[in-house]
Amino acid sequence: MADKLKDPNTLGFLEAAVKISHTSPDIPAEVQMSVKEHIMRHTRLQRQTTEPASSTRHTSFKRHLPRQMHVSSVDYGNELPPAAEQPTSIGRIKPELYKQKSVDGDDAKSEAAKSCGKINFSLRYDYESETLIVRILKAFDLPAKDFCGSSDPYVKIYLLPDRKCKLQTRVHRKTLNPTFDENFHFPVPYEELADRKLHLSVFDFDRFSRHDMIGEVILDNLFEASDLSRETSIWKDIQYATSESVDLGEIMFSLCYLPTAGRLTLTVIKCRNLKAMDITGYSDPYVKVSLLCDGRRLKKKKTTIKKNTLNPVYNEAIIFDIPPENMDQVSLLISVMDYDRVGHNEIIGVCRVGISADGLGRDHWNEMLAYPRKPIAHWHSLVEGNPRL
C-alpha cells in the first residue's frame, strides 16, 4: 500500500477519492486513512513554510515573501488553482495605483481652486474729494451654484478695516460671466490709504435661502498695481471661501529672553484697527497672555483695560520665569479681549508664538532665542481663537 501511495497516478486517484468519499461512503477505511495522513503531512509543510515565527513576522516580511510565492510547487492535484497566483494578484502592493490616487487628489484640489474664477476691477483716487473710486467691471468663469448649472452673482465691497460701510453690485441672473460696470465711492484721506485693504466678496443670490459665497479677493496694498492717480484695470483670482474673512486687527509686542535668569519678558506695545465689539462702534480692549505647555495653560496675566478705542496703546511688560531647558516645550497665546461690565468678556482675536507656532509666531520666537537679552518687536495679525484658553 505504501508503494502505491508513492505513485503519482495513485496519488491523484486518492485525492479524487477524498472528494468522492463525501458522497460515497463505501471506499475502504484504509484508503481514507492513507489519504488523510498524506494531506495532513503536506498541510503541515505548507504551514511551516508560509508562517514564520511571530517575533520576526513583520521584520522579515520581504525576506519571506518569495518563499511564500513558491509554495505552489507542491502538487495538490489538477483541479485546485495554483496557490502562487492568489498572493501575487491580491497581496502584491502596486505603488502606481496609490500614486495615481494622490495625483488625482491634487488635481481635484487644483481644479476646485480654479473653479472660483476671476474678477476684473479698477481703482482710482480723486484727490479733490478725497475719495477712492472702485469700479467693479466683470467676473469670468464663476462656478455654478444652482441646479440649472448657472449662478446669480453679485459682489460686496468693503474698504477694511471699516465694515460698516458695505456696498454691493446688482444681482445678475443666470450667468457665470457677469458684466457689472458699477462705480463705488469710499471717502478716505490719502494718507490713510496705505493702511486700508480692499475686500471683494462674490456671492450667489438665492431668493429662498441663505446666499452662497463663491469666493473673495483681498487686496492688501492698494498701491500694488497703480499709484491711484489714474484708473488702472486689475484682474485677480477669486479665492475659495465659505464665509467672509473678518479683519480682526493687529497687535505689536516685543519678546526678550534672559537665559541666565530664565526670564521671558513680553511687552505689549499697542494694537491697531481692532474689530468693533460694542454698539458704539468701539471696544474696551485688554490683552491676556497665557503660558501653555502641551496644550495646558500654566499661567495667565493681563494688561489694563483701554476704554472706547480700536487703537489702544499699552507699553506694559508681562514676565514669565521659564528655565532654558523648557523653552522648547512652551508657547504663548496672546488674546485681545473686549471688556464687558455686564456680560461675559468677548474675544476679539488671538495670535500665538513658540516653537510649535506657525509662520511669524515661530519666526518671532526663534529670533528672540537667537538674540538673547535683546527685545524683538513685530506686528502680528489677529485670528479667531478659543476664548476658553
Total helical elements: 7
**What does the overall shape look like?**
flat
Q: Mean of residue pLDDT?
A: 76
- Rounded to the nearest angstrom, the radius of gyration is 36 Å
Q: Specify the CATH class of the domain at 249-382.
A: Mainly Beta
The major β-sheet equals: 5 strands, antiparallel
Quote the CATH topology of the domain at 249-382: Immunoglobulin-like
CATH superfamily of the domain at 249-382: C2 domain
Share of residues in strands: 25-35%
Number of strands: 17
Cα separation of the termini: 84 Å
User: Which percent range fits the helix content?
Assistant: 10-25%
Describe this protein's structure.
- 23% of the residues lie in helices and 35% in strands.
- The protein is of the alpha+beta class and 389 residues long.
- Among the domains are: 124 residues, Sandwich (Immunoglobulin-like); 134 residues, Immunoglobulin-like.
- A hairpin with a 1-residue loop joins strand 3 and strand 4.
- The longest helix has 22 residues.
- Keywords: Calcium, Cytoplasmic vesicle, Membrane, Metal-binding, Repeat, Transmembrane, Transmembrane helix.
- It is found in: Cytoplasmic vesicle, Secretory vesicle membrane.
- GO terms for molecular function: calcium ion binding; calcium-dependent phospholipid binding; clathrin binding; phosphatidylserine binding; SNARE binding.
Describe how the helices and strands are arranged:
Layout: H1 2-6, H2 8-21, H3 29-50, H4 61-69, H5 85-91, H6 95-114, E1 118-126, E2 131-140, E3 153-160, E4 162-168, E5 179-187, E6 197-204, E7 212-219, E8 232-237, E9 239-240, E10 250-258, E11 263-272, E12 285-293, E13 296-302, E14 313-321, E15 330-338, E16 346-354, H7 360-370, E17 376-381
Antiparallel strand pairs: 1-2, 1-8, 2-5, 3-4, 3-6, 6-7, 7-9, 10-11, 10-17, 11-14, 12-13, 12-15, 15-16
Helix pairs in contact: 2-3
Protein name: Synaptotagmin-6 isoform X8
GO molecular function, one term: calcium ion binding
Keywords: Calcium, Cytoplasmic vesicle, Membrane, Metal-binding, Repeat, Transmembrane, Transmembrane helix
